[in-house]
Amino acid sequence: MLKVHKSFLIMFIFIVLVLFCSTQADSALLGSTGNSGANVLISIDTATGLGTAIAPQGALGPVTAIKARSDGVLFGTIGGGIGNFITINPITGVETLVGTSAGSRVNGLEFVGSTLYGVRWPSSTFGGCCSDLVTVNQTTGALTLIAPIRINGVTQTWATGIAYDQNTSTMYVVTFNGGISLSTINLTTGFAAIVGPFGGFGGTRALEFDDTTGILYGGASGGRLLTIDIATGIATEVGLTGFAISGLAFLDTTDTDGDTIIDLLDPDDDNDGVLDGNDTDPLDPDVCEDVDADTCDDCAIGTDDFGPLADNDPFNDGFDTNGDGICNAGVPAPTMTEWGMIIFMVFAGLGSIYYIRRRKVAG
Ligand SMILES: [Ca+2]
Ligand SMILES: [Ca+2]
Ligand SMILES: [Ca+2]
Ligand SMILES: [Ca+2]
């Protein structure tokens, strides 16, 4: 008997967990693979490391780094001496040129707030050697030098991937001088401080933080997905993606209405026919607006909720007993004068009945 109760309890907890988890926001770890092998955009299972191709890349050159802005715009850089700065549609993979910075290539991208930082090589300051910390103009692709990257402020170094830890306001970077290592970098001076080498993963290039879990991921040679200890720099292999990794970027892929357009790019997240900006609850297809001001929400009745049909119909937004297109709740209450008229009519009616009955009795 106890066993039955126990297994029932475990099943109940499992069902609750499944339901709870299914309502959580989704995010996907995307990878660019343009440096070698197949040039495709991939999504990566952070539990197993396995990569799945989403879309072909490379129309504008090999993609060397990617990063998503908070509004869902996915930026990318092109290597191979081309220096293109692009946007990538994360669903279709279609690339759009933003601008070109000829002669230099950016192989690390990361946002700090609304500022997009980059790692450029070769440096403009060291005669063809080493890397610069730059900012990237998101409208033109133009690069602005902050400073050459120097270990302890002295030794210039090549560098690649960068990733920002929002919890500690620390930017991490892959540096090459003194062995390929995880380093921190000062965003004003470009000075880097080595945290430690990646252990057996010297081919690590790309970095990306999961802001939710605080885990730092790395992409290494051989298509390995790594987690990296930010205190020591030591990496642990999660698994093989099956692709070469040139860049990593997390993207919020929550799709409330399940129409395959993620909320960040969907003008109508709940498919109720009212654009998010005008929708009083952009994630609830039963709540949207009240354009006829009858106090009944125009989506209260609806058609197919998250389905593709519009749900906003001011002529079908609540019980409408007298069929005037205005829901019962929206029929205006009588004014004081109207109440007076109603009371007068009631008394007049009662008086008439009383008079007629008196006539009948008298007759
Ligand atoms: Ca959607
Ligand atoms: Ca809507
Ligand atoms: Ca209404
Ligand atoms: Ca709908």
Describe the model.
- The protein is mainly β and 363 residues long.
- It folds into three domains: 27-252, Neuraminidase, CATH 2.120.10; 268-331, no CATH class; 333-363.
- It is built from two helices and 22 strands.
- The protein has helices at 2-22, 336-362; strands spanning 27-32, 40-44, 51-56, 63-68, 74-78, 84-88, 95-100, 105-112, 115-121, 132-136, 143-148, 150-151, 155-156, 159-165, 170-175, 181-185, 191-197, 206-210, 215-220, 224-228, 235-240, 247-252.
- The strands form five sheets. It has a six-stranded mixed β-sheet with strand order 13-12-17-16-15-14, with no helix packed on it. It has a four-stranded antiparallel β-sheet with strand order 3-2-1-22, with no helix packed on it. Strands 4-5-6-7 form a four-stranded antiparallel β-sheet, with no helix packed on it.
- The protein binds calcium ion (CA) (4 copies).
- One calcium ion (CA) is lined by residues 255-257, 259, 261, 263, 266, 269.
- The site of one calcium ion has 7 residues, from loops.
Keywords:
3 domains; 22 strands; binds calcium ion; single chain; mainly beta; 2 helices; 363 residues; 6-stranded mixed sheet; 4-stranded antiparallel sheet; Neuraminidase
What is the topological layout?
Blueprint lengths: L1 H21 L4 E6 L7 E5 L6 E6 L6 E6 L5 E5 L5 E5 L6 E6 L4 E8 L2 E7 L10 E5 L6 E6 L1 E2 L3 E2 L2 E7 L4 E6 L5 E5 L5 E7 L8 E5 L4 E6 L3 E5 L6 E6 L6 E6 L83 H27 L1
Parallel strand pairs: 12-17
Antiparallel strand pairs: 1-2, 1-22, 2-3, 4-5, 5-6, 6-7, 8-9, 9-10, 10-11, 12-13, 14-15, 15-16, 16-17, 18-19, 19-20, 20-21
The structure holds calcium ion (CA) (4 copies).
